[in-house]
Design goal:
The chain is of the alpha+beta class and 258 residues long. It has two domains: 7-60, Phosphorylase Kinase, domain 1 (2-Layer Sandwich); 67-257, Transferase(Phosphotransferase) domain 1 (Transferase(Phosphotransferase), domain 1, Orthogonal Bundle), CATH 1.10.510. Helices cover 38% and strands 12% of the residues. It contains eight helices and seven strands, in the order βαββααββββααααα. The chain has a three-stranded antiparallel sheet with strand order 1-3-2, with helices on one face. Helix 3 (80-99) runs antiparallel to helix 5, helix 3 (80-99) packs antiparallel against helix 8 and helix 5 packs antiparallel against helix 7 (209-218). The chain starts with 6 loop residues before the first strand and ends in an 18-residue tail after the last helix.
């Protein structure tokens, strides 16, 4: 509790070994990034504290937990209008991050949090980084959770903002299918399936036509062919205001994707 309000604490305890130093560096990196962000769809950073060997990061508390838990643990139902709203708010947050040259690098449903009013917020910036066109080695390597990762990241190749777009597509797939991506398959097998065999999850056959079309194009193996955040936000924003979300006449909203 802080000033009568519930808060969330992220804590690490420092020990004298090289692995802990890596954790501290990631912790400091996360604070550097999240402290520079202010957006209604980003978890609010409130401060940091060091107490002897304990490091704390303080953020707002999101009582409804993560989107992952809501879908898979609580078996919560999400109607079509809510699916569009969730997708839109994630996309808006991602657009903001990319406008700040931040690549999240670990975008997945367990890092999408929900407040009491069903506002969607992106959290956990432990693997995130500031991106620049001059980056070389820093923008290479396998980071994140394989089941949501883009092929180029899985292969340890150079990646950029488009890697987040792929992960966003995986979250959309999850929202529509209500399944865990590559459930029961271990991370190394996922790497082989997606990065080497190009066997990416199939677009659900049923569900909102706009979301299905976005899944198809966000999950493109070729990163240059994935849509930009601006385009995604524009499409979902129009879909939010459309009376018949399942209407096949929505095709004009994503003509550029065909």
């Amino acid at each position: 509790m802080w000033n009568g309000k519930k808060i969330a604490l992220k804590k690490i305890t420092v020990k004298e070994n090289k692995f802990q130093k890596d954790y501290i560096n990631k912790f400091i990196n996360e604070i550097n990034i999240i402290s520079s962000l202010r957006h209604p769809n980003i978890v609010l950073y409130m401060g940091a504290s060091i107490d002897k060997k304990n490091y704390y990061m303080i953020t707002e508390y999101l009582p409804k937990g993560s989107l992952f838990d809501y879908i898979h643990r609580d078996r919560g139902k999400i109607n079509e209008r809510e699916q569009i709203n969730i997708a839109y708010e994630i996309a808006v947050a991602l657009k903001y991050l990319h406008s700040r040259n931040v690549v999240h690098c670990d975008l997945k449903s367990s890092n999408i949090l929900i407040d009491d009013n069903w506002k969607i917020k992106i959290g956990d910036f432990g693997l995130s980084r500031f991106f620049s066109l001059e980056d070389t080695e820093e923008s290479k390597g396998r980071i994140g959770t394989p089941h949501w990762m883009a092929p180029e990241v899985l292969k340890g190749e150079k990646y950029e903002h488009s890697a987040d777009i792929f992960s966003f597509g995986m979250i959309l797939w999850e929202i529509l299918s209500l399944e865990i991506p590559y459930y029961g398959i271990d991370p190394y097998q996922v790497i082989s399936l997606v990065a080497e065999q190009k066997r990416i999850v199939k677009v659900p056959e049923k569900g909102n036509v706009v979301i299905r079309k976005l899944i198809e194009h966000c999950l493109n193996y070729e990163k240059s062919k994935r849509p930009q955040c601006d385009e995604i936000v524009d499409i979902l924003g129009k879909a939010k205001n459309h009376n018949k979300l399942y209407d096949s006449n929505l095709e004009e909203l994503y003509d550029y994707l065909n």
